[in-house]
Amino acid sequence: MTIASPLRLSLFGAAISVTLGLIGCSNATDTAATNESSAADTAKPAKTLAITQIVEHPSLDEMRRGIIDELADNGYVEGQNLTVNFQSAQGNTATAGQIAKQFAGDNPDAIVAISTPSAQSVVASTKTIPVIYTAISDPVAAKLIDENEVPIQSNVTGLSSQLPIEPQLDNIQKIVPNAKTIGYVYSPGEVNSVVVLNQLKKAATARGLTILDVTANRPTDVAMATRSLSGRADVIYTSLDNNVVSAFEAMAGAANELKIPVIASDEFSVRRGATAAMGVNDYDFGRTTGKMVYRVLNGEAINTIKPEVMNTLTLYASPKHAADQGISLTDDLLKNAINVDNKAQSAEK
Q1: How far is residue 95's CA from residue 250's CA, in Å, rounded to a whole number?
Q2: Which parts of the chain fold into alpha helices (H)?
Q3: Distance, CA of 327 to CA of 92 (rounded, Å)
Q4: What letters, b where the CB count within 10 A reaches 16 and e where it falls short, cover 138-169?
Q5: What is the pLDDT of residues 202-237, one digit of tens each?
Q6: In 3-state terms, what secondary structure has residue 288?
Q7: Contact between 262 and 236 (Cβ < 8 Å)
Q8: How large a percentage of the chain has pLDDT more than 90?
Q9: Alpha carbon separation from 293 to 50, 116, 255, 286 (Å, rounded)
């Protein structure tokens, strides 16, 4: 009987350890390779998305963020398998037209047009690239769809927020019960703003109200237009006019001086100085738009995706801004509203 020496046993054990280690490494490598292969099989193909909006302001920016987040949650992540080309027209319709032509030449997988002027420019520039519009108040008046809600071109669909005017007037009269004249600052170059003006005038007559409209062709005109309402209007209403919203602090500042409450139609205008607003949630609006964009990027034919309307209204209010503009908000109204002052305080903590 031969007895192995301690040295030989030690060497034999080391050899077994090395062999097992190599086997373990091989298994780990194989597993990693399998996982990588599986991930590659399920990964979304690379896509390009062009996004344009008439101007940058918090409401539209929040919609854009919602779109990008919705796509990321569904596998299209910017910087990984999604290339996003975003361009703002900085409030200039001629620039919006130039951007639209550039996008048409770039031939991305889809174009998202945020706001009416941008959507009109993009639709006029391409009949083949899928176009998804959003932040549109009246797509019929903008000539994006017909009265039967059929897109005017087969490459177009989108999401609109046709805010009914009656609830807006109800809200104004709750906040300023003695109001007789409503000032309306708007840009006549924006179709959606002109549509709202016509709706206001028609609905106001039956309520014994007068609409006093004042034009602001550029963001720099907003403060002066607001001040022109001094002694002439009891309350100011503004819809999602992009010139006005982009210069909203100027409007709010002038309203504070005049002690005239401003009622808007989006959350961010309340955060930026309005007394209250009844409108859709901008981020949720973007997420809903993002679902439509995802369907296009994922291979669905755009002419099978019907245009949609999002009309879930939320009341936003700011007791602080109301006080700055010479009024107070009732407990009953605040009970049914999201108090943006409370949200701001929570964000600061």
Answers
A1: 24
A2: 6-42, 58-73, 93-106, 116-125, 165-175, 191-205, 222-227, 242-246, 248-258, 267-271, 282-297, 319-324, 331-335, 340-348
A3: 36
A4: bbbebebbeeeeebebebbbbbbbbbebeebb
A5: 999 999 999 999 999 999 999 999 999 999 999 999
A6: helix
A7: yes
A8: 79
A9: 11, 18, 39, 10
**pLDDT, tens digit, for every residue of 267-295?**
999 999 999 999 989 999 999 999 999 99
Sheet holding 262-264, edge to edge: 210-215, 181-186, 235-237, 262-264, 276-279, 314-317, 338-339
Instruction: Confirm if 317 and 276 have CB atoms less than 8 A apart.
Output: yes
Angle at which helices 58-73 and 282-297 cross, to 10°: 40
pLDDT value for 45: 94
With 90 as the cut, is the pLDDT of residue 104 above it? yes
pLDDT on residue 319: 98
Single pTM value for the model: 0.79
What is the average pLDDT across 176-195? 94
Neighbours of 201 (CB within 10 A): 16
Q: Tell me: the pLDDT tens digits for 124-136? A: 999 999 999 999 9
CA distance 43 to 316: 40
3-state helix, strand, coil in the chain (%, to 5): 50, 20, 35
Buried b (16+ CB within 10 A) or exposed e, 90-108: ebeeebbbebbeebbeeeb
3-state secondary structure (DSSP) of residue 42 = helix
Cα 238 from Cα 226, distance rounded (Å): 11
Of 296, 307, 301, residue with least CA distance to 49:
296
Q: Which residues, 6+ apart, have CB-to-CB distance to 52 below 8 Å?
A: 86, 87, 88, 89, 96, 99, 100, 103, 111, 112, 113, 114, 118, 121, 122
Closest CA to 52 of 128, 123, 140: 123
**Domains along the sequence of the chain with CATH:** 47-162+282-309 (3.40.50.2300), 165-279+318-348 (3.40.50.2300)
**Burial grade of 133 (CB within 10 A; 0-12, 13-18, 19 or more):** buried
The residue among 97, 96, 90 whose CA lies nearest residue 56 is 90
